[in-house]
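Hello Y.,

Per our agreement to keep a running log of every chain we model this quarter, I'm adding this entry. I've kept the format consistent with earlier entries: sequence first, then predicted structure.
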Amino acid sequence: MDTERYPSAERPTDAEHITIYYDSAYFAGWPFNHGFKAISEDELLVSFSRGPCNYASFYDRSHTVVDARGGEYVTMRSTDGGRTWPMAGLQSLGSRQDIERPLYTEPEAAPSAPYDWESPDFFLTAGFGIPPERNQDLGYLQISRDRGRSWEGPFRMPAFGFAWVQVKPDYIVRPDGVVLLVVAVGIGGGAGRHRKVNVCAAP
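Predicted structure for the entry above:
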């Protein structure tokens, strides 16, 4: 690789770091897996995973424990451009089990009406960051029409024949209205080099 073409990143000197959520008894993270949106200049919404965690315990620190076994998916909102994130606004979307269960019992569930993916009121969260151990092709979407105040879903995401699926809340809307949703997929269990990026298109 010609490294001369890629200068080293410069560390910002005027960055201000803000704590969105902190509890020493909980793991919290992975907004990349669950979604973040600047609804307006002042209103921001983030979704992430949290779960009870004793950081002194190697077992508790395992991703499969803090997310897949004891995890809960939540949202938090800022109305001042991200400077403050009131705990009173923390909203639970359900435990990992709450979200996973209907994907088995109601696999054909679908939205009641089409969504406007370009609306400022639209918000998407998705999963799983860690697919279920026995069903690694299981993924879902949860969608809000009112800026994350109420939710529809979870809706099961097709696996398109892949053995391992990790649905992300990353999408673009083409000028012709087609929605492109980015999904990480895998074969052979999805480990390491077997992972690929798949783009799902929907009219």
